[in-house]
Amino acid sequence: MKKRKIPMRKCIGCMEHFPKKELCRIVKTKENEIFFDSTGKKNGRGTYICKNVECLNKAIKSKALSKALETDIPEEVLEALREEIGKNE
User: Fold this and answer.
1) pTM > 0.85
2) Residue 70: inside a domain, yes or no?
3) Residue 53's closest CA among 5, 8, 18, 88?
4) In which domain, by residue range, is 37 found?
5) How confident is the model over 2-12, as pLDDT tens digits?
6) What is the pLDDT of residue 50?
7) Is 68 in contact with 46 (CB distance < 8 Å)?
8) Between vectors from CA 22 to CA 87 and to CA 76, what angle results, nearest 5°?
């Protein structure tokens, strides 16, 4: 029997590869809404990050999150993302 291929994604905070299901997805839609995607299937430009706040803070500080989503991110959106990832830790 064939083994299924496990999709791997890179965390933009620590730059390590993990299975897709172990990471959180952050999405920017065409309407420039930025939010946490719990399903991992929403339309828009997405990026992946570990399920800990340290990686998110590292991505914000190095501007990797802004580059990945190709936009500047307002502070209130960053706080909402920190809360969501804090719940999933």
Assistant:
1) yes
2) yes
3) 88
4) 8-88
5) 888 999 999 99
6) 92
7) no
8) 40
CATH of the domain at 49: 3.30.1230.10
Which pLDDT score, from 0 to 100, does residue 75 have? 94
Asked if the structure places residue 65 within a domain, the reply is yes
| Span 15-67, pLDDT tens digits | 999 999 999 999 999 999 999 998 888 999 999 999 999 999 999 999 999 99
Residue 3 domain flag: no
Q: Could you give the C-alpha distances from 15 to 4, 49, 65, 66, in angstroms and in order? A: 24, 9, 12, 15
CB 46 within 8 A of CB 34: no
Q: How many domains does the chain have?
A: 1
For residue 57, is it within any domain? yes
CA separation for the pair 4, 7 (Å, rounded) = 9
